[in-house]
Amino acid sequence: MNCPETNNPPTQYASDRNLRARLRLWEAQEPRFDLYRWVLGLADIGAGDAVIDIGCGNGAYLPQVTALGGLPVGVDLSAGMLRAVTHRPVVAASAEHLPFRGATFDIALAPHMLYHVDDRPRAIDELRRVLRPDGVLVAVTNGAQHMAALRDLVETAARRADRDWVMSRMSTEAFSLENGSDQLATAFDEIRLVLPPNPVTVRIVDPEVVADYVASVADFYESGISQPWTEIVTEVRDRVAAIVAERGFFEVTGVTGAFVCRS
Ligand SMILES: C[S@@+](CC[C@H](N)C(=O)[O-])C[C@H]1O[C@@H](n2cnc3c(N)ncnc32)[C@H](O)[C@@H]1O
């Protein structure tokens, strides 16, 4: 298996460009699934609750937390990401060393981020430390079959030059719906895995959306393959265009869920 050399290459989140390219792929969902609303519903935010959103990225959750009456602090390792956030306060810090006193927050959100962290046991301990004793952590991640149709196209393209290449993905391996519970159990007593009511499926008609998505993950993989990543992007785009011409759409299914954790 060809693991990416790092779970978080510094170029990946130098700005929110790559994250935006990936989010764009989900815009054509039918029926629409509002992931943010679903996650915040699991967190059960009440008026005045102190909320830490760790790995807040470009801050998509923060205004929605405020709208629910919560008091959010966005925290991210990347200053470039935080530049895209209009909400305040935000703090540049790693989940491995949270600059907050113990028992500061009622709710911690860790959406699609723990798989990027090198010292995950430490980050999970830190999340437990900054939560009040009755606090709740909602950690969101993906499952092994996440976007399998797209992974197949990327692997087919890459295997023209690297026969056994596997698109190893941290969100479905390092911290996933399959193995996240065991990792969280080092710090939390009660862990409940919750899945959305229906599969999250998108039917894509514009091959450029898929090409942009694949281009956005170049820095995880390009050093481990023989071809330039741009050639993989071109082949996947052409293949998606052929599928769209034949069937009218290219369908991708997301497998995402959340761990709701208490101590
Ligand atoms: C896939 S993005 C998710 C952004 C946001 N949570 C969302 O769901 O839209 C992952 C984010 O985690 C951040 N990140 C990666 N490692 C981190 C760490 N050790 N501590 C804090 N943030 C980190 C990245 O900079 C990036 O903004």
In short:
The protein is of the alpha/beta class. Helix content is 33%, strand content 21%.
Write up what this structure looks like.
The structure is a single chain. By secondary structure, this protein is α/β, with parallel strands linked by helices. Helices cover 33% and strands 21% of the residues. The chain has 10 helices and 9 strands. The strands form 2 sheets. The chain has a 7-stranded mixed sheet with strand order 3-2-1-4-5-9-6. A two-stranded antiparallel sheet has the order 7-8. Helix 5 links the parallel strand 4 and strand 5 (131-142). The two termini are 36 Å apart. The model has no long low-confidence stretch (mean pLDDT 95). The structure holds S-adenosylmethionine. S-adenosylmethionine (SAM) binds next to loops. S-adenosylmethionine is lined by residues 8, 13, 19, 54-57, 60, 76-78, 81, 94-96, 111-113, 116-117.
